[in-house]
Specification:
The structure holds 2 protein chains of 2 kinds. Helix content of chain A is 44%, strand content 11%. By secondary structure, chain A is α/β, with parallel strands linked by helices. In chain B, helix 3 packs parallel to helix 5. The chains are: A alpha/beta, B alpha/beta. At the A-B interface, helix 6 and helix 7 of A face helix 3 and helix 5 of B.
Chain lengths: 287, 324
């Protein structure tokens, strides 16, 4: 386990904060979109794009890049924002085109409009199957050790049968070049996941399907990075990481409230959200 | 044009009978030897779809998904993104029916080049019954942007269709039937995706068909020789539709009869009607499965009861021509 120095940790936490601010700015400009999930996954996306991923923002087609498959496409604002801050060809002006006509930043990701997204997604439960396809192809090409496949999923989409079809297949083929991260934020559109359709015991479910399972605090940068690194070192099976997150993280009136799953802040709410996030930014700077 | 049909093709007794799915399986194995990025993705029906010829030769390029068609579609998408050319095979009802939304989202929308090869299309499926007799697959695929939809006329043509599909772009559906049907084309018969074949010229009526119904229509045309001059078009590619060939024929005959083992709603009958309505409104009859679910029974008995055999189809054609 690699321990990050204080400077690096501080930088990553600042970046995650910036990404949250960008998300709020995108959502209020679009007047539509999802708030809770993107804010909740900002730390994980920061860890990926600014530390873990093998990638080159200036050459997104690099054949040896890690593949990041976003299954729950509706949280794409966090990906667009992270890519923008990481140096991909997405300007601040383009971020403001999110969900608007002629934009590359579709409401749900379109790989045709932006190849760096790896896949198109939106309908839930379909990312893991595709990630398995990526992993199998890498193995056929003898490149299973050259790059890693990361698949980000939501807890709600684990209600889709197709997800479990892929869970079985990944175990059958012992896809050790595949890591799945679940955003375990316990909410979905109609309510709390355990009320809508209980998923627990989640860890035991995956273990019984012959996966290696890790858990992490999805808002503790050190924990996130150590866990993602550990996942890459597992050699005999695919790895599943339960990222315990707070939906709406960083904006107190959004946190842990499922009603913020699929709605954007209005102007007043966005102003308050940005105020809170800027205060947090100041605290990180002063820490 | 010489289509190099089997020399005595009008004498059915002299023809070999083989399932269209068999040709697809043989073609896939040949293609696999030529192209290293061809991958087979199956769902517990690999042998039944005759893809075992490929699987036995190239186990390292065969993914067995088990009874999980949606996953099979997603796996195929992932492989395609990585530069493979996946051939996803299973029965039409499960491949296109169960797999439809993942096909739409993960294959058609991004334009992935995945080839879907079915077996068990149509009433020719036989005794398994309506759950397995897929008569809506053409409707479901041709409405998806970017899809190429092919229904080969016999085993030889299926072989060629599979190979031709490799060189296309985007999603491709190759529709195959389970039952053995006459092999009336030969290895020398040309095949070009999107190019209809006027296998028999005539002036009184145009008959457009796909799959094994092409041969049925050729036999009917021969029986009517001397009294009615029937033009028979093998519309093996339903999308993109060869409007040019269709238009020329419709202009000549002024009457178009479509025959297919598919629901009359959404299949070739619909595709031809849509085209003619806009370009050359002529009298049209759509023959096929009349918006109903059939039943168990041998393919032969089903063809007879649902009028997809030679006698039933001929009677409907004559009625259409006011000759009955």
């Amino acid at each position: 386990m690699s321990l990050l120095n204080d400077k690096k940790l501080k930088d990553l936490n600042l970046t995650a904060n910036k990404i949250r601010q960008t998300i709020i700015e995108m959502l209020v400009e679009a007047g539509a979109g999802h708030s809770a999930g993107p804010l909740g996954m900002a730390d994980v996306f920061t860890a990926l794009y600014f530390d873990i991923l093998k990638h080159d923002p200036k050459n997104p087609a690099w054949t040896q890049r890690d593949r990041l498959i976003l299954s729950n496409g509706h949280i794409c604002p966090v990906r667009y924002a992270a890519m923008h801050h990481a140096g991909y060809d997405i300007t601040e002006a383009e971020l403001k085109t999110f969900r608007k006509i002629d934009s590359r930043l579709e409401g749900h990701p379109s790989v045709k409009r932006m190849p760096a997204l790896e896949t198109s997604s939106g309908p839930l439960g379909e990312g893991l199957s595709q990630a398995c396809g990526f992993a199998l192809a890498a193995r056929m090409d003898g490149m299973q050790n050259d790059y890693h496949i990361w698949c980000l999923t939501s807890d709600g989409e684990h209600e889709e049968g197709m997800t479990w079809e892929a869970v079985m297949l990944a175990a059958k083929y012992k896809l050790n070049n595949l890591t799945v991260i679940i955003d375990r934020n316990n909410i979905q559109i109609d309510g709390n996941t355990e009320d809508i359709m209980p998923l627990e015991p989640l860890k035991e479910k995956y273990e019984s399907f012959n996966w290696h399972v890790l858990e992490m605090n999805g808002h503790d940068m050190q924990d996130i990075i150590s866990t993602l690194e550990e996942a890459k070192s597992i050699q005999d099976r695919p790895t599943f990481i339960i990222a315990h997150t707070t939906p709406g993280k960083g904006v107190d009136f959004m946190e842990n409230n499922y009603k913020w799953h699929g709605v954007p802040p209005n102007k007043e709410q966005a102003f308050m959200a940005l105020k809170q996030l800027k205060e947090t930014e100041q605290k990180i700077l002063e820490s | 044009m010489d289509f190099h049909l089997f020399p005595t093709y009008l004498d059915e007794k002299t023809l070999k009978s083989s399932p269209i799915r068999e040709g697809a399986g043989l073609g896939l194995a040949e293609l696999g030897a030529e192209k290293q990025n061809v991958v087979l993705v199956g769902a517990d029906t690999i042998e039944s779809c005759r893809a075992h010829y490929f699987a036995e030769k190239f186990p390292e390029r065969t993914i067995e998904c088990g009874v999980a068609e949606q996953n099979m579609i997603g796996i195929s998408a992932g492989l395609a993104y990585q530069g493979k050319v996946p051939f996803a095979v299973t029965y039409a009802a499960f491949l296109i029916g169960r797999g439809w939304e993942p096909i739409r989202t993960t294959i058609a929308y991004p334009g992935n080049h995945v080839v879907f090869v079915s077996s068990h299309a149509g009433l020719a499926t036989g005794t398994d019954g309506p759950t397995h007799q897929m008569t809506e697959d053409i409707a479901l695929t041709r409405c998806l942007p970017g899809f190429t939809v092919i229904a080969p006329a016999d085993m030889e043509q299926a072989k060629k269709a599979v190979k031709a599909a490799y060189d296309l772009k985007g999603p491709v559906y190759i529709r195959c039937a389970r039952e053995a049907t006459p092999v009336f084309t030969t290895p020398a018969t040309p095949f070009e995706v999107g190019k209809a074949q006027v296998l028999r010229e005539g002036k009184d009526v145009t008959v457009v068909a796909h799959g094994y119904m092409v041969y049925t229509m050729l036999m009917i045309a021969e029986e009517l020789r001397g009294s009615i001059s029937v033009e028979v078009i093998n519309m093996h590619t339903i999308k993109p539709l060869d409007g040019e060939t269709l238009l020329a024929s419709a202009e000549k005959t002024g009457k178009v009869f479509i025959a297919e083992d598919h629901n009359v709603i959404g299949g070739l009958g619909s595709a031809v009607s849509e085209f003619l309505a806009e370009n050359k409104p002529v009298k049209v009859y759509r023959h096929g499965v009349y918006d109903q679910f059939a039943e168990s029974g041998s393919a032969k008995d089903l063809w007879a009861k649902y009028k997809l055999d030679k006698e039933g189809t001929k009677a409907l054609l004559l009625k259409f021509l006011n000759k009955s």
